[in-house]
Each structure stands twice: as C-alpha cells, then as structure tokens.
Amino acid sequence: MAANEDGSYQVRLVGTTAEVTLTKAAKLSSSITLNKECTVALPYTENATIDFDALRENIFNTVVASTTPELTVGDVTIEYYATAMTGAVGDLGKAWMPLEGGKKSGLNYPAISEGDQEIRISYAGTDTVYGTSAETTVTIAERPQVQFNLNEGPYEVGMVFTNDQGYDYKATAAVIYNAVVASTENPANLTADQVKVEYNADPTGITNTFKPLDYTDLGGLVKFGTGTWEIRISWPGNQEYKGNSVTVSVTTTDSRAASTVALKSGASFTYNMDAEVMKQAIFDNVIDWENSTLPAKETLSADNFVIEYYGEAILFDGGIDSGIKNWVPVEGKSYDLGEVNLGTYPQMGAGEQQIRISFNGSADYRPSENTEGTVTVNKAKVSVKVNSTNIYADESLPANFITTDPADTFDMYTIYAGVTSNVTTGIYLDLPERYTDSAILKLLDPIVKKLYGKSFTQMLNDGVTVGELRELFSTQELLDLLDKLNIDTGTFGQILTVINKLPGVLDSVRISFGTPNRAGLYTVAAVTDNKNYETGVGMGFLLVKMRFSGPKLTWDQEISGGKLTAEQAKTFNFGATLSYNGDTTVDQSGVHYLYSGFTSKWKIYSSTTTPPTEPGRYVVTVCILGGNYMAAPITRSFQITK
Question: Looking at the record's lineage, which domain of life comes first (predicted)?
Fold first, then answer.
C-alpha cells in the first residue's frame, strides 16, 4: 500500500469479507468558491488616493462565498487581469498583476480602475494543504463624481485689482467661479476656495496648457489679464467623491469706474527744498477734489498720483539753460554718462509753473488721463546766520561760518569790510564758486573785456573799485547773460545796498575778491542767491589774527666785524626776511626799515627806504608794521669806511 500512488483503494482485513474504500493523499485539498456578479467600490484615503489594502479586503469579503480550509484576506493573493499602458496587442501585453499595477516583462501596467475587471484570488497552500485559485468578473465602482451646474453663458467678468494697480488673482478667480458655476452636486455647495481656476496659457488654444491665473511665461508674452480666455475650473475630489473639471470661455474686462482729475485755477503754494512736501502741497491745494472723479481724499496720498512739471534742462554742472523742455517729475531728473553730468532738470522751482497730474488708479477706479494746469510757486524765506569767529590769516574759515535755514543749496555772496592791521580800509567780496568755473568764465570774460577793457578773470585777480562794481552790476548785457546762467541778478542790488551802508566807502575804494588775507577786524554780510528763495542777508564779525608765535626776522646778509667799505655798501644786501616757523614764503609787505646815524662829516642820516652808502656810523632797525605775522624787531649797528 505504501508503494501505491495517491488515490482510492478497496481494502479488507485478512480473514474477513467486508470491504471499505480508503483514499490515500499526500496533502489535503483546498477550494475557493466565489460569488457571481459582484460590485466593489474603490475605497479612498483622506488624500483622495486609492486605499489598496481596504480594496483587497472589500473584494475578499464581497466576492468569496466560502473557502476550504477557512481562509482570510491575509492568506490569499488578489490580482486582476491587466492591460499594459503601451505595447498591448492581442494577448501580448496582458498579465495578472497586483491591484496597484506594476512592471512585468519590461511593460508597465496601471492600477485597477473602475469597470468590469477579471479578478483572480489565489491560495498558495501549506505543507499539508494544496493551493488553489478561482477567477471571476467583478464590477469595480468609482465614487460619485462631482457635477458643476453652470450659469447660462456667455461669461463676462471684471478683473479685480489691488490698490497698487496689480491684479488680485485670488479674488478674480473667485469672481470667475461665481459667474460660471451656479451650483455643485457630489458634493453640494463647493466654494471658490475649494476649486482651482486656471487659464489656457497657449494663446492658440491648440494645446491644453492650463496654468494658475498668476502665471507668466518666461518671455513675458503670455500673462493673464483682460481679454477672452479658455478657463478650466476643477476639483480634485476627496474620499467620498470623484473630482471633475469644466472648461468654458470667459471674457475678462476692466470694469472699474473711470477717474478724472480736475485742477483749481489760480492755485499757489510756497517752494520747499523737499520735493515730497511740494507734492503734498499740490495734493492739498491744487487738486479740485469736488470736481474730480476719484476715491475719497482721505483714502489717498500724493503717491497715488503722477505729478510732473514742464521744466527746462540745465547743461552739465555749469547751470546753463539748454532751451530743452520736457515733462519731468517734481523732484527733477538727471542724465549722466559715467561720472559726467550731461544735463539736469532741476526740482520744480518758484514762479509760474505748468504742471500735469494723473491718477494711478485703484482697486475701484481706472487710471486717469493727464490733466494740465498752471500754478504759482511762491519764493520761500531763508534765514542766514553768520557765526562770528576768529581765525589766523593762514587758516580757512570753518565750514559752519555761514549757515542757512533751510539748509538748501545757495550761491553765497559774502562781503567783508573792516580795518586791517595796516590801519587801512579792507573790503572783500567773496563770490560763489560757480564764478570760477571754467565754463562760466569762458562766457563772462569776452563780454566783460568788451565792456571794460579787461576780462572778468583779470578783475578777480586785480580787484575793482566800488564804482566799477556798481557799473558792472548794472550792465544789461552782462545781466542778461547771468540770467541765462540761472544767477538771480536781483541779488546784486542787495549786495550794493550792503556796500553803500558801509561807513566811509566811496566809489574809489578798492574791492578785492575772495576772503580777507590781511589781519584785521571785519564786519561780515552774507547775501544768498537762489531763485527759489527771497534774498537772505545775515550779519556777523570776523577777526583775522596776526601770528605772534613763530614769526622771526633774519638778516639777509651778515656784516663781518660790523664794518663795510663805501664800495661794499653800494652792493650790500641790508635787507631782512620774515619767516614763519622757517617758511620764508610768507608775505613780506609788513617788513619796514629805519636807517639812522651820522656820516663821517657829522651829517645826520635818516631813511625808511634807502640804506646809507657814505662813510659814517649807522644803526638799522627792522620791524613789522601790519601784515599777518608779528615778529620781534631786530637792530644792528655798523660802520662804513672809505
């Protein structure tokens, strides 16, 4: 019996006639019985992806009628007869695959999906039980799909804008959704925040290149805005409901209200060096809010407008009018080539000015057209202060010697008048730096030379009399030129008024240009020039001190033994040199001499200019009178022999 194969055998006990049927088997058999015409729904996770473990359990519980031995879902393998994504021809490209799909024989197979699917449930068996499998057709059902119930077209919606003129894409998407979709089912009442609204970024419409509304292509050629667009509204689905989408044509428009800016006539305000203050003055005083179509004034600021004036460019750094006019910002505009200034439109200044204003637009109002008008910008007042101080003649004035409030840029004319250490009247006129600019001098020199016989440069070097200055400042041809150079010639009248008030000043008194180079006490008058300000005048004092420590007088040539022959005296250098801390280049005009004595014939000799040459005995004293350096006197005695 042991040698016999598995099967059923008739056997009886020895000595008996009763037979029984005995079945011999190496393992026990197994079986799986399946139900017919079953339907199983695809289960989903919270992330709206298929839960394949739950699907296997649902198939097992629904499809399996009975098993021998008693089996669970964990004891079996559940597969479906899949068709490859590509390369499937006839039976080629079809295979039993896990419910998740996968790769087999170089082909990719998808996961199981809704529809009638061939299902195979297999049991591998054990050491004591044979394996088995069973196949059946199961209907795999999807979740209910969302349905978008649409409003009747065509669809036209207004773009939603931010206050800074950008598109509010999120709000625009909500407006589009509410205009297109009347309601939803499965689930009901989906809102704009739950769906995705996209536009077809392919302007030809040939391809479906749907992108978020805020998408712009790399070249900047395609950007969502006003126009007619192919719009896709989609919902991805959830555990209970399958996602879906709908594509419609939507026309977007700029439906904001039109805006207009009206300006007041005869408006005026005062110049300010801060362009932002000027803009605010225009915002407050020039815009006619009652007759403008704009958002409420309290919701706006000057930054919501483009404010320009019709200005003239000034060439280079010389302040020369170019005759080139254009609309430019209130703060002006500069044109530079590297470090070279080619031209500048200055900040809007005092006087009658042409302005134009436009509104930038807002969330509720479209940008306006330009509105032009005329305003009067009044000159501002300036306070000038001379901070009285004292310096040595070889020192520069401190940076804060003259200050202004406001601290704008001014051409400063400074008049110094006083008594020098030489007990002489000293008048100095320090001109603004622009008068020494080479470009300005090239224009001034020929005209001044034609009128007065010497160039303006020569006048700066040699000085002029009060009368010459008066005549210079009243020459119309020169005044016209200075006006083109943006120099306020009205300032000259104030300068002459100051000079005329100085005591003892006649037309013959000479005026030097620059700052005082002689020790003395000076009254200082500072006169400002800026076309945007009324002329300002400030008064103070300046004490230019002599140096007492460091100056020294030294004989140019020593007299050997205190004696000279008359012949030697004729060529002898009796002079002395003033030095300051060893520097002999200082001004020598303060060095004075006194020669005194008796000739050999007992004739008295005295001179302040000429040294003696006749035989006799003499004394020479050298001292400092006036100037900027006070050295101790030096004296020596000498004898001139035959």
Answer: Bacteria
